[in-house]
Amino acid sequence: MMRINLIVLLLFIGSEFIFSQPVWYYKVPAGYLNDYFVGRGYSANSKIEASQIAFEDAIKSIMRNHTITVNLSEQYNTSSVDDVLDDKNKSEVIRKTVQELSISGESKTIKNLKEVETYFEEKDNRYEAWTLVSLPKKNPITPPSSFSPVWRSVLLPGWGQLYKEETFKGLSFMILSLGGVAGGFVFNQLSHDANHNALSSRTQARRDYFNNESKNYNTYSAVSFISAAVFYSWSLIDAIAVKQKDLYVNLNPGLFDKYQISLSLNF
């Protein structure tokens, strides 16, 4: 039991190094406050070129699916830029927006468009880039209280992390905490059994053997209960105070939304 807990703990600590791909790599996020778009680009020359192609891909997706405000020589506000911009102006919007995102991570050409994160991979002597960009929702959705993960972690360690879609972390807290409690009871029972065997033994050698076994099991039991308490407390502290580098807010299962750190303080 202690060996299993140790293995899970080591995996838990090293999970950030094992799983490097961002969550939005697998599925486009959906959020309370922003709409998100993912673009993908390839280049045999450089990461910068790959990211620019990814930005262009994301912008084209935005033009197809989102109401935007375009700043060129005048303001446009339409759900379909095809109704307002000709091909020349549309290409100019894309070119200027890609340039702005590459330099500052924000666009003035498409109002409120921001780069959230860009992820790179290098395969077969070419660069692949995935970029996540955001635009504010026309009708933002009020996010739930950040106290939700806290009370869940109070009831069951790891539940709060699962609620925040931190699956590996949540399962680790749950397994380590519950495994510690289970191990504590198991070793406690083994200690009682060894003590009983010591009392019923007819030789001193047997009594010494079982007494030693009883002490060892009793120590294992105490360590297991203490480890369970540590991981329970860790889970609770994590739910209250620890912020992710990029904090995403759950709207639908498996979907994430990046928002300001201050959101996590709205009790």
Which terms would index this structure?
267 residues, alpha+beta, 2 domains, three-stranded antiparallel β-sheet, two-stranded antiparallel sheet, 5 strands
How many discrete domains?
2
Mean pLDDT: 79
Beta-strand content estimate: 5-15%
* Morphology call: elongated
Number of helices: 7
Helicity level: 40-55%
Radius of gyration: 27 Å
Which H/E pattern describes the elements? Answer: HEHEEHEEHHHH
State the separation between the terminal residues, measured CA to CA.
37 Å
Unreliable stretches covering 5 or more consecutive residues: 15-19, 74-83, 243-267
Q: Could you say which structural class the secondary elements and strand pairing correspond to?
A: alpha+beta
Number of strands: 5
Strand order of the largest sheet: 1-5-4
Largest sheet properties: 3 strands, antiparallel
